[in-house]
Amino acid sequence: MPVLREIEVCKIDEEFRVCPACGYDYGFHTSFLKVDASKKSPVKSTREVFKVILICPECGARYDVGWRVSFTGSEPGVVRTTGHQVSTV
Ligand SMILES: [Zn+2]
């Protein structure tokens, strides 16, 4: 396994399928990274918010394309996107 790299924030134009780092073009793995509550955030929330991180299966590069999700305790399995609320972390 490659060593985890720094997460690169990037914007999606039309499609985000090809890894900018190595050219792998079959899409990405995903992972959820908890947004650090101690950091300054424009939105005060009691819900836990996670970044959706895309990971290149080939080279391990990680990308943050701005997805933010939270999981509610009362509705297991339901995912709400909050990307419009938390744009900078
Ligand atoms: Zn790659």
Descriptive overview:
It is elongated and about 40 Å long. Strands 1, 2, 3, 4 and 5 form a 5-stranded mixed beta sheet that branches. A hairpin with a 7-residue loop joins β4 (62-71) and β5 (79-81). It has one domain (7-81). It has 89 residues and is mainly β. The chain has no helices and 5 strands. It has strands spanning 7-9, 29-34, 49-55, 62-71, 79-81. The mean pLDDT is 80. The structure holds zinc ion. Zinc ion binds at residues 19, 21-22, 24, 56, 58-59, 61.
Brief descriptors of the model:
89 residues, mainly beta, five-stranded mixed sheet, 5 strands, elongated, binds zinc ion
Secondary-structure blueprint of this entry?
Layout: E1 7-9, E2 29-34, E3 49-55, E4 62-71, E5 79-81
Parallel strand pairs: 1-4
Antiparallel strand pairs: 2-3, 3-4, 4-5
Zinc ion binds at residues 19, 21-22, 24, 56, 58-59, 61.
